[in-house]
Specification:
By secondary structure, the chain is an alpha/beta fold. The chain has a single domain, classed as Rossmann fold (3-Layer(aba) Sandwich). A five-stranded parallel β-sheet has the order 2-1-3-4-5, sandwiched between helices. The longest helix is centred in the C-terminal third of the chain and has 16 residues. The two termini are about 25 Å apart. The model has no long low-confidence stretch (mean pLDDT about 95). It binds 1,3,4-trihydroxy-5-OXO-cyclohexanecarboxylic acid (DQA). 1,3,4-trihydroxy-5-OXO-cyclohexanecarboxylic acid binds next to loops.
Amino acid sequence: MLKILVLNGPNLNMLGKREPEIYGSQTLEDINRELKQIAQALGVDLTFFQSNHEGALVDTIQNALNVHQGILINPGAYTHTSVAIRDAIAAVALPTVEVHLSNIHQREAFRHHSYIAPVAVGQISGFGADSYRLGLEGLVKSLQERPVKAGP
Ligand code: DQA
């Protein structure tokens, strides 16, 4: 069974309370519960992790090697600042999909650039909590369609 790591960065533990006009009223728990149901239907296994600390996210990405086959990540504000998270994703070389609740390209200029996008399979941005579902479906499909590596 495909194992996917679902990562959330800083302040996403405050979803529901945090700027609901931008991020909606669903909590991270609500979103994860919905993802679990979708994962069950898709026949994949999810592991959830949220942290407000860059190094904890880097550690968790490194530990995904040989355990998980893909990563779904909302890096929060680290999207726009973190070379370390980008390098960790590049280091483990696990197919990664970047998601955002808000449309980062429609917002302040400092949110337009993503350090993660160049090492991601793709980015889903602007569909609220649905971005996670769309991201998971896209990631699972791309993992299932990957050419099987030829043996030695
Ligand atoms: C976010 C967008 C980021 O710019 C912001 O810092 C967040 C949330 C989103 O999901 O829309 O924390 O990643």
